[in-house]
Task: structure prediction
Amino acid sequence: MNLPTSLEVKNGHLFCGGADCAALAEKFGTPLYVTDEVHIKENFRRYEAALKKYTPNVQLLYAAKANENPVILQTLAEEGAGADIFSAGELREALDAGISPEKLLFNGSSKTEEDLRTAVKLGIKISVDSVDELRLLDAITKELKKTAKIGFRVNPEIDVPTHPKIATGIKNSKFGIPAEMILDAYREALGMEYINPVGMHCHIGSQILETEPFKIACKVLMDTAAAVTALGVKLEFVDFGGGLGIPYHRKENPDRAPTPEEYAAAVTPVFVEACKNTGISPAFWVEPGRWMVGESTVLLTKVNSVKRVHKTFVNVDAGFNLLIRPAMYDSWHEVMAANKADLPDRELYTVTGPICETGDIIAADRMLPEICAKDIIAVLDAGAYGYAMSSQYNARPRCAEVLVNNGKAELMRRAETYEDMTAAVQIPSWHKKP
Ligand code: LLP
Result:
């Protein structure tokens, strides 16, 4: 298995960030998310350095939605990250983590009036997703007598080789304004008293394993940037979104994922050349989420039972309540026996969760060493869109998250309790017992 740098096999056990996964499962209980902090820091530095090799004025805006644990946000804030935020909640988390307001971009195709008002009051830049939203923002800024710095989200209308549910720059996507309509939007914004259009934004999709689509999107955006510059817009940033994929397939036919260096080599020269031709010098912004955190984390789950019927099922204690990606996008995550990491593969197993749905399959038909009850299965590459998309379905409280750093391991979020899960329940008067 081609392991990510956060993982290694020692003395027959899987280690994450220098800590023995089987021992962590024993100490903190399962299911358990385990994240290597060092891996995230290294990822941030590597991504930033790759881009800065070509253009000095770079800002990474970590896509908070991928993993918004406040400790991870703080780790990235300390490295100098900004954040792509998609809700008032993510905005608050980013500010609480110490990310400076100038490094935030409030994204989203359906922001509330309250979201916009909060962003204007706090001076947060906004990626405007429609002309209707622009007009609402105009009204809010007039009422508050406060200028809002905005960019528009451009839909570059390109096909992206990824799962259709996460291709966001295609023609029929709900996100962004088509390039042919964008000039009118900038023109209208330029005429508004308290709206200052200083940016341009796109995000073409997620888990993209080729650099070409990013290059095409960059070209579309920079052509658009030249056109809006001619209108009189002074661009301070062009934001190319996130999307760089990671190699989820690590065993047979492993994925070939582009590195940040390859991404930078493909995209930044298009940007630099276009800036020169247009005579502009906006900052180069990107919004990586998955690439920053995806490989940093394993989900540890204990085997409750093994059932040998027409297939051999390994029934574990984590299901799509904790990792929905396989059920939602047919995503592949490698699985390993954390306490039998150096034993030879023996049998074909299907790892299934405890949820009352047939689709609650974490990993189908995988070769593993002989598995029995109480073994610990590690689900790899669970750091992005794992805990962040978890639920309490089937009245299962969410599990704990542990942060490791060179072998040290502590909780960064405790497991929820039954009381946490029911804390918001209210009893209507006619249901109250006298
Ligand atoms: N910027 C914007 C505006 C986004 O919508 C996203 C992700 C990102 C940046 C970060 O993209 P990344 O670098 O992580 O690919 N839940 C799905 C992925 C959904 C992505 C949503 N937007 C999954 O588990 O695959």
Notes: The chain has a mean pLDDT of 96. The longest strand covers residues 297-308. The two ends are 62 Å apart (CA to CA).
